[in-house]
Write a structure and sequence with these properties.
338 residues, alpha/beta, 6-stranded mixed sheet, 6-stranded parallel sheet, 10 helices, 16 strands
Length: 338
């Protein structure tokens, strides 16, 4: 089968790799659609993602596969199901890593529910399995787009963004745009979008409709935020760009009880910020599975336009062009078809 690999830092390849054997709890899927994760996939490609710098490695985690076969002990996937986030699951002897291993002709989903039923884990643990089955009749590309949108919706809920809050969102890509959208849906009193380039701010604002926007390069950024909030500051500052400098920029924007939520900054890099240990800085871990059904209900009700996030759609073999479009800010979100 063919797969998209990072051969070495900065070098992307599309070549044949062996297919891993299917286990009893695996369901084999044929990949049908995917998309480039603007931040994570770019960092992986350039060798800057913490802990993922050994190559070659199969790229991709925003993908949908159609189940073509199931293992002997699989009980929760059926042939014909469309499932998000399949992985290639290579054994160590293949000497090919998976970061996070979706972009191949064939990949597996694991019936973790059946595994836990057959061999209960010792001690209680929270389990939010990301490899969810899409509702019948769902467009596979909608399933791909749901990955980022469900993750951000869950994150907003866990950060307790709610009615009456003043919210400051850092980030004008799909993640930041989704945070603005879901903050508004949660009943926020005021939502401010913060970005670095005016063109990116305008494009994001057309999708998510913040109350106003501010450029982080403005030397009076903090004063501007306080002016917009009538001197109150923000109750929730959301870091959606993976940049530790946002922490230091957000702290003086907070209201007396305000909090900063970290989405893109990895714990291993958080310490680079001057205010890394500020008592009101929180790292939030989302669980997209907890809002899976709700998300698709919101789409059916017309409250979420997921396809509005998709600016380009390319064959998987043209993934290199997709990265270039994103790097040059010509694309907002790049979909991939098999």
């Amino acid at each position: 089968m063919n797969a998209v690999l990072i051969e070495r830092a900065h070098e992307l390849g599309f070549r044949e790799v062996p297919e891993a054997p299917m286990g009893d709890y695996h369901a084999r899927t044929r990949l049908v659609a995917g998309s480039i994760c603007n931040s994570t996939d770019a960092k992986l490609l350039h060798g800057t993602f913490p802990g993922c710098t050994a190559f070659p490695a199969v790229l991709g985690h925003e993908a949908v596969g159609e189940v073509t076969a199931v293992g002997a002990k699989v009980r929760n996937y059926r042939v014909g199901d469309l499932v998000i986030r399949p992985r290639v699951c290579f054994p160590p002897e293949f000497n090919i890593r998976e970061y996070f291993g979706s972009f191949a002709d064939f990949a597996y989903v694991t019936d973790q529910w059946a595994m836990d039923d057959d061999n209960p884990p010792t001690g209680a643990r929270a389990f939010g399995h990301p490899q969810q089955v899409l509702p019948a009749g769902t467009d596979p590309m909608l399933g791909v787009l749901s990955i980022t949108l469900k993750e951000t919706l869950s994150w907003i809920r866990r950060f307790a963004v709610g009615k009456g809050h003043r919210v400051l969102v850092f980030g004008t890509g799909p993640v930041g745009t989704a945070f603005v959208l879901f903050s508004r849906m949660a009943g926020a009193k005021q939502v401010i979008l913060a970005g670095r380039t005016e063109s990116s701010i305008r494009r994001a604002a057309e999708l998510c409709h913040p109350d106003t926007s501010v450029n982080v390069t403005d030397p009076h950024f903090v004063a501007r935020v306080h002016e917009i909030t009538n001197g109150e500051g923000v109750d929730r500052a959301i870091e959606g760009v993976g940049d530790t400098s946002v922490i230091d920029l957000a702290v003086p924007c907070l209201s007396p009880e305000g909090q900063i939520g970290l989405y893109g900054v990895a714990p291993s890099t958080q310490a680079k910020a001057l205010h890394a240990n500020h008592p009101r800085v929180r790292a939030i871990s989302p669980d997209e599975s907890e809002v899976h059904e709700e998300f698709f209900s919101l789409v059916r009700e017309g409250r979420i336009d997921a396809f509005g996030f998709l600016s380009h759609r390319l064959p998987i073999r043209d993934i290199g062009r997709g990265f270039s479009l994103l790097a040059n800010r010509e694309a907002f979100k790049v979909g991939l078809d098999w």
